[in-house]
Amino acid sequence: xxxxxxxxQIDLETVMSIGNIIHHDFSxxxxxxxxxxxxxxxxxxxxxxxxxxxxxxxxxxxxxEDYNELLKRTNEK
Length: 77
Known about the structure:
This protein is an all-alpha fold. The chain has one domain. Helices cover 45% and strands 0% of the residues. The protein is elongated. The model has no long low-confidence stretch (mean pLDDT 80).
């Protein structure tokens, strides 16, 4: 795969596949791609994309506090 980048004759489907994997739209660099059916680079399968950072920070802190409490109780026995 790494040696592919030394090749100047890579088909556009491969370039699009690489772009989808790394979440990069190569249509600015390769004009032929702009006429092809480009897909969005957003992850539509991510169910957490609408959650706020504050929500996840609070969830993490709550789990951390619960875990620390559990460790304390385990060590007391």
